[in-house]
Amino acid sequence: MNIAIIGTGYIGLVQGVVMSDLGFDVVCIDNDATKIEMLKQGKSPIYEPELEETLKKSLKNGKIKFTLDYNSGIKNADVIFLAVGTPPLADGSSNLNYITAASKNLAQFLSKDSLIITKSTVPMGTNKKIKKIILDELKKRNMDNLNVSVISNPEFLREGKAVYDFLNPDRIVVGIDENDNKEKIKKEIYKIYEYFLKKQIPIIFTNLETAELSKYSSNAFLSVKISFINEMAMLSEKTGANIEDVSKIMGFDHRIGNEFLNAGLGFGGSCFPKDTLAILNIGKNNDCEMSIVNSTVKFNDDLKDILIKKIKNKLGSVKGKTISILGLSFKPETDDIRESPAIKIIKKLINMGVKIKVYCPKGMEKTKRELKNYSDFIKFCENEYECAKNSDCLILTTEWEQFKNMDLKRIKNVMKSNYFFDFRNMFSDNENIRNYFHYYPIGRN
């Protein structure tokens, strides 16, 4: 089966690379010439475990190609995936300009009946709008006799585990327009996802709006869970409770589950912040107050100030101090710094007169670009030991495995002062940690 994928961002690239490894013939289309050239050379523009290795394998086997040309990209496609970004606008709503443009572009080259599958996260009603855009363009070409179906097939991938999650999903969601031939589309979906049927992964068929909302609902719920446990962590610090034990006790309850119950800096990345703001905007437009999600977003924003206040209380004053930050990506095993709590804390500390030193295994280059206007106040270091050298305070903001294995005694010996704020509780059970540092985890003493 020939697959065309429009968009080589996080979603589209993972989709294309893994599907090519499963045996499909894949063509990925993008309008970024630099990115396309990188991909042709087997270099991934994003860091994701196993992705670049799989990309090189598929290129060598001739199972994946990359192009700027819509015509050559879709002319032989049996199925077309739309995987274009929908970044947030200033009011929190989703910017649909890219997916609208992609829909118009593909419609200019459609020459046969087509199944178009939307992977992008879009507000309810968007897939019907996409179909209308395509049909309107086909009408201009006098090709409105073509049978075009647009379905919603949201992704549920975790950054840092995207390849694994693609191959081992909890469920596959497929939203079909009530006016389309459902049985015909189901047969096509079964062909595309035969690998997952053999693994007995459930495929849930529903209408377009339900599929669209399912993505927002899942991300909003997980965001609520994260903010909830962080709020409990702040209460734990005030009352002498241990948030890690609280989380463990809660997690044993099968109605709650133990995922996303680790206290920390709050959520970041490309999905949770964007999707929670989007669902607030969707609720507003539909006269539906989303009070729980609104509180979640507010607390997640406030948490950075709460933790900076904790640092100030312990250090006395931060002005003129040198503070080292370990971890820049919003989570380990990714170089994605979008909405990273670490970046937000760095900006706030610099504005308070702090000198910053940073190190991250994968997030350095993107951070240099993101913080170019702050370059006079930041030193980018080669490793965690250089980062800690002569600093007054160390803050661990991302729980990279590399940091778990660092020599704590060596870290302590190179620091000017020995304050260590572990905002991921990575060392909270280390019996020696308090022999080396004034150590402050989250949600426990």
Number of DSSP helical runs: 19
Tell me, rounded to a whole number, the average pLDDT.
Answer: 96
Low-pLDDT segments: none
Let me know the largest β-sheet.
6 strands, parallel
Tell me the overall shape: elongated
Helical percentage: 40-55%
Strand order in the sheet with the most strands: 3-2-1-4-5-6
Structural class: alpha/beta
Radius of gyration: 24 Å
Measured by DSSP, the beta-strand proportion falls in: 5-15%
Q: Alpha-carbon distance between the termini?
A: 58 Å
Let me know the number of strands: 14
Strands, helices and their partners?
Elements: E1 2-6, H1 10-21, E2 25-29, H2 33-40, H3 51-61, E3 64-67, H4 70-74, E4 79-82, H5 97-107, E5 114-118, H6 126-140, E6 148-152, H7 162-167, E7 172-176, H8 182-192, H9 194-198, E8 203-207, H10 208-239, H11 243-251, H12 272-285, H13 291-315, E9 322-326, H14 341-350, E10 355-359, H15 364-370, E11 378-380, H16 384-388, E12 393-396, H17 401-404, H18 408-414, E13 419-422, H19 433-436, E14 438-440
Helix pairs in contact: 1-3, 5-6, 10-12, 10-13
Q: How does this model look, in words?
A:
The protein has 445 residues and is an alpha/beta fold. The chain contains 19 helices and 14 strands. It has helices at 10-21, 33-40, 51-61, 70-74, 97-107, 126-140, 162-167, 182-192, 194-198, 208-239, 243-251, 272-285, 291-315, 341-350, 364-370, 384-388, 401-404, 408-414, 433-436; strands at 2-6, 25-29, 64-67, 79-82, 114-118, 148-152, 172-176, 203-207, 322-326, 355-359, 378-380, 393-396, 419-422, 438-440. Strand 13, helix 19 (433-436) and strand 14 form a beta-alpha-beta unit. Helix 1 packs across helix 3 (51-61) and helix 5 (97-107) runs parallel beside helix 6 (126-140).
